[in-house]
TrEMBL record:
This is Glycerol-3-phosphate dehydrogenase. Belongs to the FAD-dependent glycerol-3-phosphate dehydrogenase family. Signal peptide: none annotated. It comes from Antricoccus suffuscus. InterPro entries: DAO_C, DAO_C_sf, FAD-dep_OxRdtase, FAD/NAD-bd_sf, G3P_DH_FAD-dep. Residues 426-525 form the Alpha-glycerophosphate oxidase C-terminal domain.
Length: 531
């Protein structure tokens, strides 16, 4: 247990350079750049003791950094690679309303999910989360009784939405639809009828992480990618700058280990295994441009589902699998079996027969599981776990992108309690992320909708970049909507430091195998000029 180090009065901060009026965020959000990273890193050499050191730059670490910094705590985040380079860039991108937890009677988890979905959609990130129509077709292998149960489940999900006061205009009530209406939404679906419901869909999981990290920086957090924690303790960590190889000790009143499935490497008492969740990517045109997602029960029950999820860039993700893996390596890939399983399950509900030839990309992420005292596997992707280990650091693992804010609130509450730091109450429930504005304000922005969905109010800056330099209006690769201006913006504002950062995480060009090499070439050349 940590000793009480000090009692420090903190007050909630205002972000640098931001003003709000009529619920509209104006002025420019501060940029995260390589220069700023270097200055922030240099400033730690004095050996000052900060309040909160966060290890890991996925959604959990970024969320903790934002929560701590906005309470007025001095905060540093270190990430061994790029922001969002772990599991947070390999999700399905859904902002769940908690329906699946209702089915397993985990009411608290369901309420938490539904509440956080509402906060993201209505307050903190309306630009990044849209309402997604989801069609569950009535397939022949689903008995009528199960269909009735499914409908009751969706109705309960709608009651949950109402109980946490998320606006019905954003997430309309579920209803049965005819085969004709189903085909209007999903032209290649094979069904005479189905159930239509609504949930939240992220424009891009990486963009959420970047937005949270930049917002944390606006509140004073030092965000340091390519800095690895070599070991941690309750009062700091030994870190290595991956760009120079130099090592430094960072002294901190509290340390939060948010390294996802790799948490056990820094905190040996945290024993994790992982399950691989794979997605394949097909061109949306192969499915004749659906306007809804498709949800396909794997075996006629609703325990396991495969979702067909159209994205805004002309691709569709199909996922996921759930397979125990032996090795928690740095990067996992879908196996041939995963690909065949996803194709076969999706094809049950489709009039077109997708084959391996239709697959233009694939990716996989790891869900953490732990073994409880009775030897039973516990799925941490439903509910996160917070623990204090032998090192004295706090570890937070599991949970979901959807609930990152609440997870961060709990982690920081616990961290300050243990460290004996006085901190203001959590501020993040009503704190807009970079780019956020009311939906009315977003509708006024003069920019392509795709840019507004990805950058919110900052879309205007991308339009201005392309207006100043016509070359930047050109697509990075032919046939993709992503422009060169987005790459430049990534370098100038979002701490993209390598071509891979730009192609794999500031944009998602790299997910499509056939365009990755060309996109990397363009990114390399633009980076050289930007430097
Ligand atoms: C297939 C799949 C689909 C999913 N779909 C959804 C979904 O639709 N909706 C949803 O809400 N959630 C979803 N999730 C869950 C969600 O993606 C995860 O809960 C979340 O991304 C985990 O974030 P994290 O920050 O804890 O971990 P990570 O994103 O893995 O971040 C951990 C970071 O720590 C860094 N790190 C590790 N060791 C060190 C070190 N020593 N020093 C410095 N840095 C270090 C890593 O590089 C990494 O960037 C899905 C998960 C999977 C696997």
């Amino acid at each position: 247990m940590l000793a009480i180090v000090s009692a420090i009065a903190s007050t909630p901060r205002s972000p640098v350079g931001i003003t709000e009026s009529r619920n509209i965020v104006s002025l420019h959000w501060p940029s995260l750049t390589a220069d700023r990273r270097q200055r922030d890193l240099d400033s730690l050499a004095s050996g000052e003791t900060i309040d909160v050191l966060v290890i890991g730059g996925g959604i959990t670490g970024a969320g903790v950094a934002l929560d701590a910094a906005s309470r007025g705590l001095s905060t540093v985040l270190v990430e061994q690679s790029d922001l969002a380079s772990g599991t947070s860039s390999y999700s399905s991108g859904l902002v769940h309303g908690g329906l699946r937890y209702l089915a397993s009677r985990q009411i608290n988890v369901a309420v938490e999910s539904a509440t956080e979905r509402g906060i993201l959609m209505e307050r903190t990130a309306p630009h990044l989360v849209r309402s997604l129509p989801m069609l569950m077709p009535d397939l022949a292998d689903i008995p009528a009784k199960r269909r009735r149960l499914a409908r009751l489940g969706f109705q309960a999900g709608d009651l949950l939405r109402a109980s946490v006061r998320t606006n019905k205009s954003l997430l309309p009530a579920p209803r049965r639809i005819s085969g004709a209406e189903a085909k209007l939404l999903f032209p290649t679906v094979r069904a005479d009828s189905g159930l239509l419901s609504f949930d939240g869909q992220l424009e891009d999981d990486c963009r959420l992480v970047i937005a949270v990290a930049r917002t944390a920086a606006a509140y004073g957090a030092k965000i340091l990618p390519r800095v690895t924690a070599r070991w941690i303790a309750g009062d700091g960590a030994q870190v290595r700058d991956e760009l120079t190889g130099l090592e430094t000790r960072i002294n901190a009143r509290s340390v939060v280990n948010a390294t996802g499935v790799w948490a056990g490497k820094l905190e040996p008492g945290v024993r994790l295994r992982a399950r691989r969740g794979s997605h394949i990517i097909v061109p949306t045109s192969t499915l004749r441009d659906p306007r809804a997602a498709l949800v396909v029960p794997v075996d006629g029950t609703f325990h396991e589902l495969v979702s067909v999820l159209p994205q805004s860039d002309g691709t569709t993700y199909i996922g996921t699998t759930d397979v125990l893996v032996d090795d928690i390596g740095a990067r996992v890939q879908p196996t041939a079996d995963d690909v065949d399983f996803l194709l076969a399950t999706a094809n049950k509900a489709l009039e077109v027969a997708l084959t391996r030839d239709d697959v233009v990309g694939q990716f996989a992420g790891l869900r953490p599981v732990t073994i409880d005292d009775e030897g039973v596997e516990v799925d941490l992707s439903r509910k996160h776990q917070i623990s204090i280990g032998d090192t004295g650091a706090l570890t937070i693992v599991g949970g979901k992108l959807t609930t990152y804010r609440k997870m961060a609130e709990e982690a920081v509450d616990k961290a300050v309690e243990i460290a004996g730091i006085w901190a203001a109450d959590c501020q993040t429930r009503a704190l807009p992320l970079v780019g956020a504005a009311s939906r009315d304000r977003l509708a006024e922005i003069k920019a392509p909708q795709r840019l507004i969905d990805r950058y919110g109010v900052e879309a205007e800056q991308l339009v201005a970049l392309a207006a100043d330099n016509k070359d930047l209006a050109a697509p990075v690769v032919a046939g993709s909507p992503v422009t060169r201006a987005e790459l430049v913006f990534g370098v100038q504002n979002e701490l993209a430091m390598t071509p891979e950062d730009l192609v794999d995480r500031r944009t998602r060009l790299g997910l499509v195998d056939g365009q990755r090499a060309e996109a990397l070439e363009v990114a390399t050349s633009l980076l050289a000029h930007a430097v």
